[in-house]
Design goal:
The complex is a heterodimer of chains A (about 130) and B (about 500). Chain A contains 5 helices and 5 strands. Chain A has about 130 residues and is an alpha/beta fold. Chain B has 4 domains: about 100 residues, Rossmann fold (3-Layer(aba) Sandwich); about 100 residues, PAS domain (Beta-Lactamase, 2-Layer Sandwich); about 90 residues; about 160 residues, Heat Shock Protein 90 (2-Layer Sandwich), CATH 3.30.565. In chain B, helix 3 links the parallel strand 4 and strand 5. The relative contact order of chain B is 0.05. Classes of the chains: A alpha/beta (about 130), B alpha/beta (about 500).
């Protein structure tokens, strides 16, 4: 079964093109350009892996993170960010993020990270 | 009559050996200074037990007799002093004395006696006066030594001049700082120490008008030609009538301190550069990520060659490639901002335009503002004159103040910052007003102390505002803060207007 992915990033082109590439490899990808719309989506539909840009205007990325975990505890969250912030990484890990990826990244890295995150899901959908 | 030779003492005899005689005998005996050129060689009195007679015998006077006629045979007798008080005796002596012997009677003797007493009194008074004078002189010497001690040991340069500006005194610390020995500069015009002779006029005029010049920073030239930065406090020297007799300058060599301040500013710049670099890296990563995905996607399509329809590929290329170009332009503007900050290694003119400085600074802060939900409103007055400060330093000040405002509102997630400018009394005032949470008065009072920060640990070193305050004050300006908790905060950066000298070396017009 294809992995259900939610890409959350305010850079629309980044989100859209990444989504296209992931879809071409058999994933079911949705995009959200803000924390708010991400939370709406997660509340409405089950998602296997969320790739979440931490530094978006408006909502604090961690708030979105916590909300996702609250509504869908089995959903895996991968942190995405344009810059390395040690504190952010630690905070994310404390919240239960399974990975941290720095933009820009090799597409294959993202692909593998999503697959691995899905493997590690408690309810193990394949 | 034998004339009294000046060298030879008067050979004298006394008739009347009472207390008066004793007094004279004692006086002559005690005359250690040899003031009395008198030698008493005979004493005559009817009563051989009279006080003077006894004393004469003790003293070993040659002829002590009861009959005054015995005195007449004393060889070379010059003088007989009659002290009996009896007119009869006096008359007898007058009639019977040898012609070569002078007679002084008791009245004349008394006169001489009183003259002598008067003289003694004068001498005593003189010697007392002398003692007082010596005491005064000693006191003077002690006072001078004490004042000299102060001058010698004071850890500040103390240089005094007369009304014409000639150096009168030059203390040890001044010698140490300048490299001159006092002797080399005393008497010379004080301008030999100045970097620019032109400075003396306005300085001395100010002091003459009774103004104290305080902590005035300027440059001076050492003996070896090197320059030092000093902080001078200059005042009038007055005499006891209150009239000006010269000037006294107390100065400290602040070259080291200036270097430290420059270093702190430089470190502040480095810190700012560090923050900038981090910001830039972040900013560039985003467009790079987009380029990577678009290019990767187009690559994916071309890899699936035969299965992809030509029209589909064309359309994707048409959409994707311009987007890549747009992202690359975005990168360029980011790197050019970084390069412009690197210009700090160049020597900059101390003139800046407030509006242009904000143009440089605001784009850097745009992302942070956006993330914090803060809107920045520019309400600058047009045609504000330029100010006397380096453009990069002004940008540093603005960056710190505006960032401070943004940070204060970032937890709330929304807010506004208004930027106003105005010109008043030869100064330009840039106002940064926010409707953030504000801070309490105790915090405002310490806002420019280094290491005071209201931010949580790790989110700000607290050096920024104190450096800004230092920079602005160094250029003759000030930063004022007013805040009301719950209402907002107002920062006012005040700087002196730069008055153009009317030459063609205007750096901006060259652009």
């Amino acid at each position: 079964m294809s992995i259900r992915v939610l890409l959350v990033d305010d850079e629309k082109d980044f989100a859209n093109y990444t989504a296209k590439r992931l879809s071409a490899r058999g994933m079911q990808v949705q995009t959200a350009y803000s924390g708010r719309s991400a939370m709406r989506w997660v509340a409405a539909q089950p998602v296997d892996v969320v790739v979440l840009d931490l530094f978006m205007p408006g909502m604090d990325g961690f708030e979105v993170f916590r909300e996702i975990k609250r509504v869908r505890p089995d959903t895996q969250v991968i942190m995405l960010s344009g810059h390395v912030d040690r504190e952010a990484v630690e905070e994310g890990e404390a919240l239960g993020a399974v990975d941290y990826i720095r933009k820009p990244c090799e597409f294959s890295t993202l692909l593998e990270a999503i697959k691995k995150a899905n493997e590690q899901r408690p309810d193990r959908r394949r | 009559m034998a004339a009294g030779n000046d060298e030879r003492p008067l050979i004298t005899a006394i008739v009347g050996g009472g207390q008066g005689c004793e007094a004279i005998l004692r006086m002559v005996k005690e005359d250690t200074l040899g003031r009395f050129r008198m030698s008493i060689v005979g004493v005559a009195d009817r009563h051989s037990n009279a006080a003077g007679v006894r004393y004469a015998r003790e003293m070993g006077v040659e002829r002590v007799t009861t009959d005054y006629r015995d005195l007449y045979t004393i060889p070379d007798l010059d003088l007989i002093i009659e002290l009996t008080g009896s007119a009869t005796v006096r008359d007898e002596l007058e009639l019977s004395r040898p012609r070569h012997v002078t007679l002084i009677d008791h009245i004349a003797a008394r006169l001489f006696w009183e003259l002598h007493q008067a003289e003694e009194a004068i001498i005593e008074q003189r010697s007392k006066d002398f003692a007082i004078q010596r005491e005064i002189e000693a006191e003077l010497v002690r006072t001078r030594a004490y004042l000299q001690n102060i001058l010698d040991n004071a850890p500040v340069m103390i240089i005094t001049t007369d009304l014409d500006g000639q150096i009168v005194s030059f203390n040890r610390h001044a010698e140490a700082c300048y490299g001159y020995v006092a002797k080399e500069v005393v008497g010379k015009p004080v301008t030999v120490l100045f970097g620019s002779r032109a400075e003396w006029e306005p300085l001395s005029k100010g002091v003459k008008q009774g103004r104290t010049v305080q902590d005035y920073e300027t440059t001076r030239v050492r003996k070896d030609g090197s320059q030092m930065t000093v902080s001078v406090t200059l005042a009038q020297l007055k005499d006891s009538a209150g009239d000006m007799i010269g000037t006294v300058a107390m100065s400290r060599d602040i070259t080291q301190r200036q270097l430290l301040v420059d270093q702190v500013i430089q470190n502040g710049r480095l810190a700012a550069l560090g923050r900038l670099a981090a910001g830039v890296a972040h900013e560039i990563n985003n467009p790079m990520a987009v380029i990577a995905e678009i290019a990767g996607y187009l690559e994916d399509l071309t890899e699936h060659g035969p299965t992809v329809k030509r029209r589909h590929l064309d359309r994707e290329l048409q959409e994707g490639l311009p987007k890549i170009s747009a992202q690359i332009r975005r990168c360029r503007s980011i790197t050019s901002r970084l390069l412009s900050f690197a210009r700090q290694s160049e020597v900059r003119m101390e003139v800046a335009d407030v509006s242009l400085a904000l143009d440089e600074v605001l784009p850097f802060l745009a992302n942070e503002a956006r993330n914090a939900g803060v809107q920045i409103h520019r309400r600058l007055t047009p045609n504000i004159p330029r100010v006397s400060i380096e453009d990069l330093q002004l940008e540093e000040v603005f960056t710190n103040c505006i960032k401070n405002a943004i940070d204060a509102m970032s937890t709330r997630g929304h807010g506004n910052i208004w930027l106003f400018s105005e010109q008043k009394d030869g100064r330009v005032i840039l106002t940064i007003k926010d409707d953030g949470p504000g801070v309490a008065q105790e915090v405002v009072d310490r806002l420019f102390d280094p290491f005071v920060t209201t931010k949580p640990v790790g989110k700000g070193t607290g050096l920024g505002l104190s450096i800004c305050h230092g920079i602005v004050k160094h250029h003759g300006g000030d930063i004022l803060v007013d805040s009301e908790p719950g209402v907002g905060t107002v920062f006012q950066v005040i700087l002196p207007v730069h008055y153009e000298t009317g030459t063609n070396d205007d750096p901006v017009s060259g652009c």
